[in-house]
Design goal:
Order of helices and strands: HHHHHHHHHHHHHHHHHHEEEE
Oligomer: single chain
Strand order of the largest sheet: 1-2
Number of domains: 3
Strand content: under 5%
Number of strands: 4
Number of helices: 18
Amino acid sequence: MLQHIGSSPRYKWWVFATIGAGIFFSVVDHGSVQIALPDIEAYYDSDLPTVQWVVVAYALAISVLLLPMGRLGDTLGRKRVYVAGLAIYLVASAVSGMATDIAMLIFGRVLQGIGSAMMQGLAMAMIISSFPARERGKALGSNMSVVGSGAIAGPALGGLLVSALGWRWVFFINIPFGIIIMIASLLILERRQPEEEERDNSKGFDWVGAALSGAMLLLFLLVVGNGHQLGWTSLAVVGGAFVVVVLMVAFVWWELRVPSPMLELRLFRRKLVALGVAAGWLSFCGMAALRFMVPFYLQRVLGLTPKEVGLLLIPAAICMIVCGPLSGRLSDKFGWRTLTVGGLALSSIALFTLASTIAERSPVILIVAMLMLQSTGLGFFNSPNNSSIFSAVERSSFGVVSALTQLIRNSANVVSIALATTIVVTIMGMRGVEPSLDAVSPQVADAFVAGLRAAFVALGCCTTLGMILALVRGERPRPQEGEGLQERSPADGQRQGEMPVAGRGGVRR
């Protein structure tokens, strides 16, 4: 049977199903743990700032290690690193589920973050490596649909497990499913494509670059994530920002000189990569804070219950599930620019509409409609944009570029929430209200809504700038303009506008 799978023309979908299952449960885990936080706080008799590190430590570990793990996969072999990450994730789930105190739980979550970084950093690269270049958008869009499905299922599954079996089962549930996924990964992944053909291990792993990037990202996320609480002019924040700049300069200096850099910065000389990365970052910067702020408005101003808010957020997630695969397939046929520009235009319209219409008692249907429009826009943008980035790099760099696309999302989410929170609490303070989201209530709704309007304008400006970058980036070059940039994939021959593939025997055309 395995031999039949390996030679089947649908092998690519076996690979997608195997990796997609791992992605799905990783996303589900994040949502279910969020639901379990109140029970964890009560069980350990802790406080909210401490318990929040159950989520923060996990997110930081992923963000800091994404790039190194992506490059490690390009160097040692993606299947090897992916399966090792899955094993670490399973062990860490057991540690988290059996934690006897909050410190042990946070330690387990850090381990989970390490394993998840190894999986997330390589999942997209392994999926698109199994699809011909002409179907790259389809692969990325289908992956986006899996992520959206996990986002919906996570809170629902978490609530069911916590109420029926207790909070520890949001971790224990990972183990049986993870074992099945690991066995499938060992048996199915990369049975047909020689992994060495895409491996770049001639010059070793850039440990210095990994250390510099990890330290820089960790400090950057801590500074941005805590700036509004500590004060943007405080010594800790200003000093931390200075160190971030120093580390960034050192990282760039080192990466431009080391023989085998962790991240090939010269890739950013390619317009599709540089502008695609920038537009992607701006798109997520305009999205995350909207998802973060709207629940505050619905619960603390309109008085809806958490359950009602959760149900109201589902339609927006469904829009992303539907639009991701659709936009991916359309981009394979018609190119990227129309979809990326149009998608960010929809997101901008949603944000500016909310900025101009949201009030102390806005209709819920308006909020839900704008969330759906914004999600539809992001769904149309994301898959074609990622497809354009991957089309401009060699297969030997797919792992680190896959990790880079995930890092774009994570870092932009942090900056987006920090930016919006700072704007909202600053305007609340200017209106004589306690400058804190904890103070939001119907009694201070006017100040909070004024802050939301300004924040949504700022987010809309981010997506509008991203739309401009997507417009000027251009489209696939025509055949006569490609000048040797065509890539021959196993199943589709030459493809317009893509980079040559570097293999052991040089550049394959």
